[in-house]
Amino acid sequence: MPTWLQKILSSSLGKKYITAITGLLLVLFLVAHLAGNLTIYADKDGSAFNSYAHLIESNPLLPLAEAGLLVLFLAHIGLAVRVTIENRRARRSRYAVANDKGKKTTSSATMIWTGLIVLGFLILHIWNFRIGKELAGESGDLYTLVKSELRQGWTPWAYVVGMGALGFHLWHALRSAFQTLGAAHPYLDEAWEKLRWLAVVLALGFASFPLYFLFYT
Amino acid sequence: MSESMHITLNVWRQKNAQEEGRLEAHACDVSPDMSFLEVLDVLNDKLVSEGKEAIAFEHDCREGICGSCSLVLNGQAHGPHKNTTTCQLHMRSFKSGDNITVEPFRAAAFPVLKDLVVDRSAFDRIQQSGGYVSVNTGSAPAANAVLVPKDDADSAMDAAQCIGCGACVAACPNASAMLFVSAKIAHLGLLPQGQPERKKRALAMVSAMDREGFGNCSNHFECGAACPKGISVANIARLNRDWLGAVLTEREERKDQGD
Fold it and tell me: I want to staple A159 with a disulfide (CB 3.0 to 4.6 A). Which of A61, A210, B2, B124 is the partner?
């Protein structure tokens, strides 16, 4: 391992840098994912969504992209868990009176929990569609699979809860990541305050799919 | 003379670093014009006259500039006000009949020594690791020989206001010392005199901070709100920038010296 990488990984700041960069890359993935999924709303029979899905599946670089995503998720989750454990150790005795000066938010105080809920969602999601698609084989088209899974029992509600957690997670993340990367300036800070609304857009956007299949199809 | 107030203090008592501590209730009649530390003085006089042990707490200048006083009052470092140290907090900020829980700053890196006194020497060790500039001694340099842009001087002075009290650590949900370290980095790094050691300073002070067992910053920004000197969290972003630049560009120490 090169010395500079070793230095980064052994430092509190380095761990946060990598958590921030991997997190922002995952947000970019979510933006692309949501844009692609919107083809669901293009027509009633799902042919637009299926041809979009075919475009992705037939790309020879897909396994590489999946491996990249896996690395991003593992690095982000691993470092976040480690940083959280270190933070708990940094204050062993709690204050008798829990209070603050009003800067902490529900979103900032629950990052590890919302993150773990999103991880739970992710496992369910991969089971439903990535593994589900493999099991369905060539016969099933993805739209039919999505439609049947997202109307089944508690699955749509688990998706809505997962996306709620994602919204809370990203609300703090989108502000925090740029501060960690050192990109702070009165003008930039104003831009980040606006950018955090992307958290709401992503959460509502993704949560709309299970609700659409449940109530409108 | 203003009317006297009746308050109840729940004070953290702890014999030493090893033993468990607990809260102890004391009823006090106080004047609204007293500072919070004066209330503890009066209470201690009473305890001593009753043959009990006085409450240990730290204080020195009592005018808000030395960084000695600490205390977490009802869960807030230095009490409820903005930009105010505990010594400058007056009892008129509370109501008669109030219960005030008085605790020490809590962080693994700030172990409690006795009652409300914590060991903040971790800050000294961080400071010694790089929070300085090296200058030649001898005659004073000519005034204005080194020009400093006004904006930089202002920002450096804002950061230099840090009195090293540790309220940022006490208020941080993660007990992180980033606001303190970032204030020192900005204070010296913004000035021309601080440039030669700028990269080394960022690397050394961050490693020293990590060694002391402070938590990691997760940008709750509670530190800036609790800081009695109003140090801005923008300094933390500057520290993050300086540190990354230093990691990526600082050359290894030359090994060929003396050959």
Answer: A210
